[in-house]
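Notebook entry, structure prediction.
Reason for the run: the old model in the group folder had no record of what sequence produced it. Starting over properly, with the input documented here first.
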Amino acid sequence: MINCLAIDDSPLALELLEKYIGDIGYLRLIKSCTNALEAIEILRKGNVDLIFLDIQMPDITGIDLLKSLKVKPKIIFTTAYPNYALEGFNQNASDYLLKPFSFERFKIAVEKVNRQLQLEKNEESDNEFIFVKSGYETIKIQIKNILYIEALKDYIQIFTKEQKILSLMSMKEILELLPFGEFIRVHRSYIISAGKITKVAPRRIYIGEKEIPIGNIHRDEFAKFLKEKKIK
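New structure, fully documented this time:
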């Protein structure tokens, strides 16, 4: 999900943005604000990925707000003034929507931001790895390649796209090395990569052709995960 903040001093413009945002499944509106000062408090919390930002506003303009941010989310300017376009792109805006804009034009801008965020995420994941001991060797594993992990008495077996690696570790130890929220323990013998799930059935999960049981003590935690992903 892309967390969004809409900032515009026009209630009608905000109403239209709210409708457009609601019509795109991967956008989540955090809040709508009628001025930049109100938005600053939300931006301090750091959970905004994308701002729909009007430029000509009282007190602080959209450009001034953007210049004041140390960490800048993605920006799509929404304005009735075409003469601000150059300044908008100088501030590394992802797009510039000239009012009135259609849903189709809005969708094009949002899809551009989605592609940018996915590329950045992929670049970051290329740099995310762990080292595990396997026999007399220490093996580097790219986290994005891990499919699932299976417990084998005192050992674990890590299954990736290319190989399986046996290591003398506990499930608790390997889980502590992995990114929180991206890997879920679904059974006493299985940890899965959430992003690699291909199908969910009663009491079991599929990663490709591999069938993985959901343990009784982990069922509630997995149900909570599905709820957070809006899967019922």
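Summary: The chain has a mean pLDDT of 88.
The old model has been moved to the deprecated folder.
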